[in-house]
Amino acid sequence: MSDKLRVGLIGGTGMVGQRLTILLDNHPWFEVKVIAASERSAGLTYEEAVRNRWKMEKPIPEVLKNIVVKDGAAVEEISKEVDFVFCAVSLNKDKTKELEELYAKHEVPVVSCNSANRMVEDVPMVIPEINGEHIEIINSQRKRLGTNKGFIAVKPNCSIQSYVPAISALSEFKPKSILACTYQAISGAGKNFEDWPEMLDNVIPYIGGEEEKSENEPLKIWGQMKDNKIENIKEPIITTQCIRVPVTDGHLAAVFVSFESKPSKEDIIKLWENFNIPESVRTLPSAPKKFLKYFEEADRPQTRLDRNFENGMGITIGRLREDKVYDYKFVCLSHNTLRGAAGGAVLIAELLKAQGYI
After folding, report:
1. Where in the chain is the domain with CATH 3.40.50.720?
2. Under CATH, to which class is 5-157+342-354 assigned?
3. Model confidence pLDDT, tens digit, residues 316-333
4. Are strands 5-10 and 30-37 parallel, antiparallel or unpaired?
5. Strands 315-322 and 328-334, bridge-based pairing
6. In the predicted model, what is the mean pLDDT of the chain?
7. Where along the chain do the CATH 3.30.360.10 domains lie?
8. Which of the four pLDDT bands, split at 50, 70 and 90, describes residue 90?
9. How far apart are CA 11 and CA 309, in angstroms?
10. Closest of 273, 251, 239, 264 to residue 328, by C-alpha
């Protein structure tokens, strides 16, 4: 009998759910036991449910092909079969929030890839290498929900996970203003070029809701736990533009930043290259060995060449130079469906297990 934790994938037929099946195949700690989706997919085998919309380069894991997909709304039934769930549903915000809370109140920990609960004050929104300690707020959340085991933890928006780590490494110099323009892959919309031929030879300068998330979520990640909630910091002030570009995977950011105490270029590169992953994270199965990598080459990082750094869980940075308006500017890159979505969620789940929350 396996001693692995039993996992449910709620929203398992979408792009993030598909990526989760690949990442969890032969995972040392976790084993997928339930896949759930919308009512129209319920009753089909997983292979049947994704037959015409499988978007991963790797094939469907053999062990999951014949799992019968459940209705994600069957919370009571699913709760009896899992130890925790990943939630990556395609519902509106209110329905997503309601569904995730329902699982939590059925004593099922929820690791969410959705935005609905990100700004709830007692829900930890975590990049484990940066603010893993925020998971301690779960104790307060459980009191609010009236649960013993159930809770919700979320991963941040994929658009911020290139530049937030790079700036977090420089916190001792107190960043005070940030401009970030992100150039985001179409997989961030759950699509590929077959689904979205309009993206070929095209750039769309708008992604609904993305700029608000990009400007506000870092303030919670950098916030402090106080009085049973996470308080957002007031600075830095962040302004963003989020642009969809014809790339399969990988979100690139052009970043401009000013500091209260301006560092030297050498100081910045040294902090990036020597970033110390916390011991509590370093030993987790999905953790990168090196989190931040700086390229000296003028034309790096490049999306196609560098998005898979550290199996897609690392951040690459380049083109650091002084700016005429801000103190410095640079570019950085993250893999949006690995670090930014499914992989980030798996790493959070590993941290929660290691710390005894699931």
Report:
1. 5-157+342-354
2. alpha beta
3. 999 999 999 999 999 999
4. parallel
5. antiparallel
6. 97
7. 158-335
8. confident
9. 27
10. 264
Considering the segment(s) 158-335 as one domain, its CATH architecture is 2-Layer Sandwich (3.30)
pLDDT at 339: 96
Taking the CA atoms of 32, 106, 346 and 70 in sequence, report the sign of the dihedral they define: positive
Q: Which residues are catalytic?
A: 158, 251
Q: For residues 73 and 81, what is the distance between their CA atoms, to the nearest angstrom?
A: 14
Q: What number is the average pLDDT over the span 59-80?
A: 97
Distance of CA 202 to the CA centre of its chain: 26
Per-residue pLDDT at 26 exceeds 70: yes
Cβ atoms 115, 93 nearer than 8 A = yes
